[in-house]
C-alpha cells in the first residue's frame, strides 16, 4: 500500500553519482548527524562496526574520533564519495577502512564477503529503496550482521509534511519488514530528525525514525 508520502520508487544511482562527494548532496553537512552523536553518547558502537552508505564520512569520522577499541569500516557505492571520505579521515587522523560497495549487489563477491559486524549503521539509506530493493537490502543485512548484532536505522519518516525525495518510510512497514517472523527483533522505533545541508530545500532537518533492531 502507498499514500502521498510513500511511493514505491527508488532513487536512481545517477543522482548519487552526480551529487555524492561534490558537497551538493543535501546529506553532505560536514558534521555528524545529531542522532549519531546521541548514539555515541549511549555507547551503541562497539567491536566491528559498519557504516553503510557513509557518503563523505561525516558520521564515520565522528564515531572513530569518539569511540575507542572499535574496527570501523565505511562503505558507499560512489567511488568519489569514498575518495573524499578517505581524505577527510586522513586529515582527522582516524582509522577507518573504506570500501566501494553497493548494498544491492551480491556481497559474497565484494570485499565484505568474509566479514560480519556487531553494529550496522544505516543513516539515511533504507529510504532510498523501492519495495523490491528493500528485500534485497535486508537479505544483505542478514548476511553481514553477527548473532545478536545491532542494526541502527535512521530514515525519513511519514511524519514529514514536505515532499521529499527519497520516499518517507511508514512505521508499519518497518514493523512488518523487521518482524520476529522474519528473524528480527525491534528494540525501539523513535522519532528523531535528519539534518540537511543548510542551503537545501529540506533545511534545517527532516522528520525521521530512529530504529534499533536485532
Q: How would you describe what is shown here?
A:
Strands 3-2-1-4-5-7-6 form a seven-stranded mixed β-sheet. 28% of the residues lie in helices and 26% in strands. The protein contains six helices and seven strands. With 214 residues, the chain is of the alpha/beta class. The model has no long low-confidence stretch (mean pLDDT 93). The chain has one domain (13-213): Rossmann fold (3-Layer(aba) Sandwich), CATH 3.40.50. It comes from Rotaria socialis. InterPro entries: Methyltransf_25 (IPR041698), SAM-dependent_MTases_sf (IPR029063).
Relative helix content? 25-40%
User: What letter string, H or E per element, gives the SSE order?
Assistant: HHEHEHEEHEHEE
- Straight-line distance between termini: 26 Å
Decide which structural class fits the backbone. Answer: alpha/beta
Reported by name, the CATH topology is Rossmann fold
CATH architecture: 3-Layer(aba) Sandwich
Spatial order of strands in the largest sheet: 3-2-1-4-5-7-6
What number is the mean pLDDT?
Answer: 93
Could you list some keywords that capture this structure?
7-stranded mixed β-sheet; 214 residues; alpha/beta; Rossmann fold; 7 strands
Helix and strand topology:
Layout: H1 13-19, H2 34-41, E1 47-52, H3 58-66, E2 70-76, H4 79-92, E3 97-100, E4 117-123, H5 131-144, E5 145-156, H6 171-177, E6 186-195, E7 205-213
Parallel strand pairs: 1-2, 1-4, 2-3, 4-5
Antiparallel strand pairs: 5-7, 6-7
Short précis:
The protein is α/β, with parallel strands linked by helices and 214 residues long. The chain is 28% helix and 26% strand.
Amino acid at each position: 500500500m502507498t499514500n502521498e508520502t510513500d511511493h514505491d520508487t527508488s532513487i536512481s544511482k545517477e543522482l548519487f553519482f552526480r551529487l555524492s562527494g561534490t558537497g551538493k548532496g543535501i546529506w553532505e553537512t560536514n558534521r555528524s548527524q545529531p542522532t549519531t552523536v546521541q548514539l555515541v553518547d549511549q555507547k551503541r558502537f562497539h567491536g566491528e562496526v559498519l557504516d553503510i552508505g557513509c557518503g563523505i564520512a561525516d558520521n564515520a569520522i565522528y564515531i572513530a574520533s569518539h569511540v575507542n577499541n572499535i574496527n570501523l569500516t565505511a562503505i558507499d557505492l560512489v567511488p568519489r564519495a569514498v575518495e573524499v571520505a578517505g581524505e577527510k579521515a586522513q586529515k582527522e587522523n582516524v582509522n577507518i577502512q573504506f570500501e566501494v560497495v553497493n548494498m544491492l549487489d551480491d556481497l559474497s563477491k565484494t570485499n565484505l564477503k568474509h566479514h560480519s559486524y556487531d553494529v550496522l549503521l544505516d543513516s539515511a539509506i533504507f529510504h532510498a529503496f523501492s519495495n523490491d530493493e528493500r528485500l534485497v537490502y535486508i537479505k544483505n543485512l542478514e548476511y553481514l550482521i553477527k548473532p545478536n548484532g545491532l542494526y541502527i536505522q535512521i530514515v525519513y519518516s511519514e511524519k514529514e509534511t514536505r515532499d521529499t525525495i527519497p520516499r518517507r518510510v511508514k512505521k508499519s512497514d518497518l514493523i512488518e519488514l523487521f518482524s520476529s517472523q522474519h528473524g528480527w527483533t525491534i528494540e525501539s522505533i523513535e522519532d528523531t530528525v535528519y539534518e540537511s545541508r543548510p542551503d537545501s530545500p529540506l533545511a534545517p532537518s527532516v522528520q525521521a525514525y530512529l530504529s534499533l533492531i536485532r
